[in-house]
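Z., the sequence and structure:
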Amino acid sequence: MNLKALLFAGVVFKNKLWINTAIKGLFKEIPEQILEDGANFELSPMYHSLILVDMLDMYNLVNAYPDCVPNELVNLIREYTQKMIGFMHFMAHTDGGVSFFNDSVDGIAPVMARIEEYALKLGFAISQFDTKKTQVVDLKASGYMVASHSGNKLQFDAADVGPDYIPGHAHADTLSFELSIGKERVFVNTGTSQYGLGERRLIERKTVSHNTVEVDKVDSSQVWSGFRVAKRARVIKRDALVSGDHVVLHAVHNGYKKIIRGPLHSRTLTLSGNTLKVNDVLEGKFTQAVARFYLHPSLKVRIQNEELVVVGEHFQMQANLAALKAKLVDSTWHPNFGVTEANKCLELYFAGTQNMINFTWTTK
């Protein structure tokens, strides 16, 4: 953050011009770059953590040198930093790592525990997201939804590409999701292994690399080059609620309709204590469609007797595939820049306008 650097330099070198320029810029940019639900406006959990550390550093500075900046700026930094801490918790997996929506991987930003320790020393409150509760949080400003049930955590990308004028870290991942069962990641987006203009970078931004539906081999948003987006999906409907003993997340996007005059994609995720039901509906014309479900590399995955079997360290998951056109394929997962790990992807091909699958599991 250039304004952070200017503020630090101004305070250290006692340069009033630099300090005043930084103050003016921060009053404008903090409310613009940090949304009301605490998300950084680029909608990347990784970059969110990086910007949160910048905010903590600035708060540390202005408290150490209280005469250098007005109280209004101190209060502004404190207010938005507290919101950012909450968003970090919502979008973190139960293992403490970041979720892989847009350009986001582990190993770049400091881990959540280290950020929490820093925030606590500066007097910020840390409120944990209790995954044992049956609950849902609709982060409407950013577009994400987060649900939990019986120690399991589900994160749903019902967000638009953002921000409109600088979408360089966006992926075509609308209506993708990630799921942790206990402390184990289960369904994971592919991640980001590199920047630049190469084929690998483009593939990792495409719809095919995420836990969502690809229609007619077209991306839901037109990602191109290394950091470009043309026509993009918009979420036109969204709901999140607790219904009895279930949490229901629902959203609809119009990306395929805008790009190829194709269908609207509607997805409903229903989470209970030991079940995740994924129901996809395509409303409109299309030739072929496939839903993909990427599984974490640590899991043992196979199809046996028309049933998907996923074995983790502390759980076993099944899904009946008898009525579905399913295929298990080799894939890769990228948990850090420059890192590639082999994993499996379940592909479900649409036979009509609707595709539904129930994942059920037992813990051990």
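The two ends are 46 Å apart (CA to CA). The chain has a mean pLDDT of 97.

Let me know what you think.
H.
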